[in-house]
Specification:
Blueprint (H helix, E strand, L loop, with lengths): L7 H6 L2 H6 L2 H21 L6 H9 L6 H11 L2 H12 L13 H37 L4 E6 L2 E7 H25 L13 H6 L4 H14 L16 H29 L3 E2 L19 H16 L1 H8 L10 H28 L1 E2 L1 H26 L4 H22 L5 H7 L7 H7 L9 H19 L13
Antiparallel strand pairs: 1-2, 3-4
Helix pairs in contact: 3-4, 3-7, 3-10, 5-6, 7-8, 7-14, 7-19, 8-11, 8-19, 11-12, 11-13, 11-14, 12-14, 15-16
């Protein structure tokens, strides 16, 4: 429909896989799976529920009769009961035992946890692939000297590959966080209206062991090792905050990368991919704007800000629950996942297709390296019998004049030529040029790349081999 608002998170940014995870089909089929698990678990623990009733429920998990559910919701103003009704129309023999003993949060909250788990697994898959692509890039350029920057001012040299490991290090920390989160996720389980399981105690004639067993069965049937030990009516709303904080942390990593790449592209050293027929500017036809990196930053910023929503919700819940969480969380949680999915789609695309301009990088190194190399030249000249203080003063004067030439007149840096011509240094041209070889100023950068990949990255990639076949999907 073109005459109503449609979220660009679906139409422009998120993948089909993530959009499906937060779709109505996923939500309501999961509700039905939970109703099947509940009926099956209650049957296994001795309630008067037949196998035929359970099989009837299983047969209609996916053929969701939305029109009947929507019509009923207009009448009763309750989404869960309208879907209980709609499910019962398809399962006449089982309609009397659907949702038996449960409160609305049984399907609502448990489904939310399941959806977040599936979303986190997709995010992890894309994180692993991004780490793989950046690792390949880091290894390829581990020896290439480039200007390092502090305060965005030229500092000591590093290498193109070493800089990439800084991006990877952030993502490694994110993988550790998301692994911990996925590994500790719990289902809400069957806890009843205020979390006391009173309705289930009634169903099972006050048999606490059977009530506890049902809670455990539901968790296992839905793919969880356990459910929360205690809850109010809902699972702890801190979970939403923890999940979105994790998404925010990943967004922070991606945002940092996107800013670095935009700066590098401005310096014409490294560029994001640019399509053959892509238009950089409607007015300036020559421009190659870093639009993908910019979009990454825009979406990442949205996720970072969005993470405040569940934090406020968690801190303002009253006693066993209030309903001021519902409208907010169904927007905030879904959009955080969809937006971050869009960020990672872009991250993968850029990481796989970055263009490195080696001659530009080398020119920038050669323009700044003479200033950085003066101490090494001075030390070598002292070894040849020169006076350290006199040499220092000579270098200071030469440096000031060369800097004026570069900054004041826009000419090349002739500092090395000045030093070569200065006989007080007692060094030949070849000796001085040997001293200022850029590879002598990169320290352990190449080794650090190799060691970091071997020690920290390779284990992640080996433990997640089945996740690296995903492809980046961007639509604009």
């Amino acid at each position: 429909m073109r005459n109503t608002y449609s979220t660009p998170l679906n139409s422009r940014y998120a993948s089909k896989e993530m959009s499906y995870i937060f779709s109505d089909d996923m939500k309501f089929s999961t509700w039905r799976k939970l109703w099947v698990a509940l009926a099956e678990g209650e049957m296994e623990l001795g309630l008067n529920i037949t196998k035929d009733q359970v099989e009837e429920l299983k047969a209609h998990i996916y053929d969701i009769n939305y029109e009947e559910a929507l019509a009923k919701e207009k009448e009763v103003r309750h989404d869960v009961m309208s879907h209980v009704y709609a499910y019962g129309l398809l399962c006449p023999n089982a309609k009397g035992i659907i949702h038996l003993g449960a409160t609305s949060c049984y399907v609502g909250d448990n489904t939310d946890v399941i959806i977040m788990r599936d979303g986190l697994n997709l995010i992890k898959k894309k994180l692993v692939k991004t780490i793989k692509l950046l690792s390949d890039f880091a290894i390829r350029y581990k020896d290439m000297p480039t200007l390092g920057f502090t305060h965005f001012q030229p500092a000591q040299l590093t290498t193109v590959g070493k800089r990439a490991t800084l991006w990877i290090q952030d993502l490694v920390m994110d993988i550790e966080s998301i692994d911990f989160l996925i590994g500790t996720l719990k289902l809400r389980g069957v806890k009843g209206t205020t979390g006391t399981q009173a309705s289930f105690m009634t169903l099972f004639n006050e048999d606490e062991e059977k009530v506890k067993a049902l809670d455990k069965k539901i968790a296992e049937k839905m793919g969880f090792s356990k459910s929360y030990g205690v809850t109010g009516q809902t699972y702890p709303r801190k979970l939403d905050s923890i999940v979105l904080n994790t998404l925010s942390e990943i967004s922070q990593s991606a945002y940092k990368f996107s800013n670095d790449l935009r700066l590098l592209q401005s310096m014409k050293e490294v560029e994001e991919p640019f399509e053959k027929n892509q238009i950089g500017s409607s007015a300036m036809a020559y421009k190659r704007n870093p639009m993908r990196s910019e979009r990454m930053g825009a979406l990442a910023r949205y996720v970072i800000v969005d993470a405040l929503n569940p934090a406020i919700t968690a801190s303002t819940q009253w006693f066993e629950r209030t309903l001021d969480d519902s409208a907010n969380k169904r927007i905030a949680v879904a959009e955080a996942f969809l937006a971050l999915d869009g960020v990672l789609n872009l991250y993968m695309n850029i990481a796989e297709n970055m263009v490195v301009y080696e001659k530009v990088i080398a020119a920038h190194v050669n323009r700044e390296l003479p200033f950085m190399a003066t101490e090494n030249i001075m030390m070598e000249a002292v070894k040849r019998g020169g006076d350290r203080q006199e040499l220092h003063e000579s270098i200071r004067i030469h440096s000031m004049e060369a800097a004026q030439r570069v900054k004041g007149e826009g000419l090349d840096n002739d500092l090395i030529d000045r030093i070569i011509k200065d006989e007080s240094f007692k060094l030949s041209k070849d000796e001085i040029l040997s001293i200022i070889d850029p590879k002598k100023f990169i320290g352990r950068a190449p080794s650090q790349v190799t060691e970091f990949i071997d020690e920290y990255v390779t284990p992640i990639l080996e433990n997640n081999k089945d996740l690296v076949d995903i492809k980046a999907e961007i639509t604009v």
